[in-house]
Write a structure and sequence with these properties.
Blueprint lengths: L2 H6 L2 H4 L2 H4 L21 E8 L9 E9 L11 E5 L6 H10 L7 E5 L3 E2 L9 E2 L1 H5 L5 H18 L10 E6 L1 H12 L6 E5 L12 H7 L6 E7 L4 E2 L2 E2 H15 L2 E7 L6 H14 L18 H6 L7 E5 L4 E6 L5 E5 L4 E5 L5 E6 L4 E6 L5 E5 L4 E5 L5 E6 L6 E3 L5 E5 L4 E5 L5 E6 L4 E6 L5 E6 L4 E7 L5 E9 L14 E3 L5 E5 L2 E5 L5 E5 L7 E7 L5 E6 L2 E6 L20
Parallel strand pairs: 3-4, 3-7, 7-8, 8-9, 9-12
Antiparallel strand pairs: 1-2, 2-4, 2-5, 5-6, 10-11, 13-36, 14-15, 15-16, 16-17, 18-19, 19-20, 20-21, 22-23, 23-24, 24-25, 26-27, 27-28, 28-29, 30-31, 31-32, 32-33, 34-35, 35-36
Length: 580
């Protein structure tokens, strides 16, 4: 097979090259060959046809399932999933390593990509390989977890362990990036990853993965990478450079990562040779769990500057219909709204949640003013209300639609009005006027720590807008200032509520999680949300204002941090100058 044929060959054929090619520069070792006296696992072939409600409707795919003789069928089994139907002499390797007890006895599931069969011989099937494998996001992971693996369990009367430390996934080329993306999207399901000649390039956004790895809180994933310096260098990118960039990003972020580099091309030679050692490394110290940043070597700002080691999201309250608008008073007590129930709740310093106010006009955004009152966007009443400490309300403004608000130390109130795509200013004397128009969906609104700038989130776009506040409260010098990351396939950031810390960092609730930005408008880190539901808002509370609270659909969570939040109800503070 010449170099062009190798470049065009699908990964499942590449995996056979070590067997077929006489010029193999990386011959496989004994662990990749049948051995005398080693129990042979059973290999069963199957085909899976997706239904109309599938993630990939109408697709058909072949697969094989490997069941070792040593498997205890009475217990949920460890699992190894390989894309493109297998490769790497995986059956021989599993037989040999399981027999030597170097890896746990595990079921192998070797699954090919889907095809939509053509209606006639005069038409081609629709090949889903790039669509399923190269794309970011959770579609392929959802397909595996909710459709295909449950089908395999039912069809072959096996039970897979649900423990992510009992699960590995791997693949070559596009199947390699698919393996990584499954673990990245579902670290609750897979902790061990093997990728060879991985397609971390610009075909469907894979070139963005190293950036997201560098910015996101590390996840409990152990990964082995393989590539060669003569890998593809085509329109989508340079595979060799991309795999090295991926490895450097993983190290930067504190992942448990290993690699095998060679001088080969886009083939399966070296990958097959190193596969046994890669499995030993991936399963080493089993059943000890794979931990995120286990050696404490992460250099990420999300770890080094913002979050505390060992801390995770803690549930504050649940059972609400839709939580929003968290606000904090000078004592550090947090208040949040449950919009459909027209109720405002209070989180005490001891963590107890109580009802603060009923019949709030479906209050949304909340904010404490310099006089100690809690201001609320009572949109169902088309009013801005102010609550005293005993829960009694006064109408501050009438006749405007509202979503969120912020209040300067001098008493000016800025209110976002999404239906009319505008921002209002309400002055201390009760007069109101529109000070900005034109955003698609103006939502969260906050002040810089020195209160010289106003920030407005546009939920249906990518940017947070920055305005300078004039002496009379009007807004000027509008800019698309904070550049946010988008979830793959989304045309909007989902930017909603925001908060700031004493260093001037801006924290934004988005579809991707809490994205925090430096004063220059750049995302420095991404904190994943605790559940895959709408993340509405964020605030810093607690007695030291160092606990992050978020409202996430039907629940409220908290998390201790290294940073301290800013209260605009207090006198402005001047943060340190940004590093440009």
């Amino acid at each position: 097979m010449n170099s062009l044929q190798r470049a065009l060959a699908p990964a499942f054929l590449l995996a056979l090259l070590p067997i077929l090619a006489a010029d193999n520069p990386y011959p496989p070792g004994p662990d990749s060959k049948p051995q005398e006296g080693v129990p042979k696992g059973e290999v069963i072939k199957g085909e899976y046809l997706s239904g109309t409600n599938s993630v990939f409707p109408g697709t058909v795919r072949s697969y094989s399932i490997y069941i070792p003789q040593q498997l205890d069928r009475a217990q949920p089994a460890p699992l190894m999933v390989l894309q493109d139907g297998g490769g790497y002499e995986a059956v021989n390797v599993l037989n040999n390593l399981i027999a030597k007890k170097e890896i746990p006895a595990q079921i192998g599931v070797f699954v090919s990509h889907g095809r939509v069969r053509a209606h006639s011989t005069n038409a081609l099937d629709r090949f889903n390989r790039s669509y399923e494998y190269d794309g970011l996001g959770g579609n392929y992971a959802k397909f595996l977890m909710e459709e295909f693996l449950p089908h395999v369990e039912r069809e072959h009367h096996v039970k897979f362990s649900s423990n992510p430390d009992d699960r590995a996934i791997g693949g070559a080329s596009s199947g390699g990036i698919a393996a990584w993306t499954v673990a990245w999207e579902r670290p609750d399901a897979f902790h061990r990853v093997f990728t060879s000649v991985g397609t971390y390039v610009g075909l469907r956004g894979g070139n963005n993965i190293p950036t997201l790895v560098r910015k996101s809180e590390p996840k409990p994933i152990r990964i082995f990478l393989q590539d060669g310096e003569n890998d593809l260098n085509i329109y989508g990118g340079d595979w060799w450079m991309a795999n090295q960039e991926m490895e450097r990003a993983l190290k930067f972020a504190g992942y448990d990562v290993n690699h095998a580099w060679g001088n080969g091309g886009h083939d399966g030679y070296l990958a097959t040779q190193v596969f046994p050692d890669a499995l030993r490394w991936l399963w080493r110290d089993y059943p000890a769990p794979v931990k995120a940043n286990a050696e404490g070597k992460s250099k990420q700002p999300v770890v080094t500057d913002v979050l505390l080691p060992g801390e995770d999201w803690k549930l504050v309250g649940e059972g609400y219909r839709f939580t929003e608008g968290p606000a904090v008073n000078t004592r550090g007590e947090v208040f949040f709204s449950d919009i459909p129930n027209s109720r405002i709740h209070k989180v005490g310093l001891d963590g107890t949640v109580t009802v603060f106010a009923e019949n709030t006009g479906e209050a949304n955004g909340l904010m404490f003013g310099p006089d100690g009152r809690l201001f609320a966007c009572a949109n169902a009443k088309k009013q801005i209300l102010a609550y005293t400490e005993d829960g009694k309300s006064t109408v501050i403004a009438d006749g405007l639609e509202s979503n969120d608000l912020c209040i300067t130390h001098g008493g000016n109130i800025y209110v976002t009005d999404p239906p009319h795509k505008q921002v209002w200013l309400i002055t201390p004397d009760g007069k109101k006027r529109v000070v900005d128009t034109g955003l698609r969906f103006p939502n969260g609104v906050r002040l810089s720590p020195d209160q010289s700038l106003l920030y407005v989130a546009d939920t249906q776009a990518q940017f947070i807008y920055s305005y300078q506040i004039a002496d009379d409260g009007s807004l000027e010098f509008k800019q698309k200032y904070y550049h946010l990351h988008l979830v793959d396939g989304s045309v909007q950031s989902g930017a909603d509520g925001m908060a700031l810390d004493t260093q001037g960092r801006l924290y934004v609730a988005t579809e991707m999680g809490i994205q925090f930005c430096d004063q220059a408008g750049r995302v420095n880190g991404i904190i994943p949300k605790p559940q895959n539901k709408w993340l509405a808002h964020v605030v810093f509370g607690g007695p030291n204002f160092d606990t992050m609270y978020i409202t996430c659909s039907d629940k409220v969570y908290s998390r201790k941090t290294r940073v301290h939040g800013v209260l605009s109800s207090q006198p402005p503070i001047k943060p340190p100058a940004p590093r440009l």
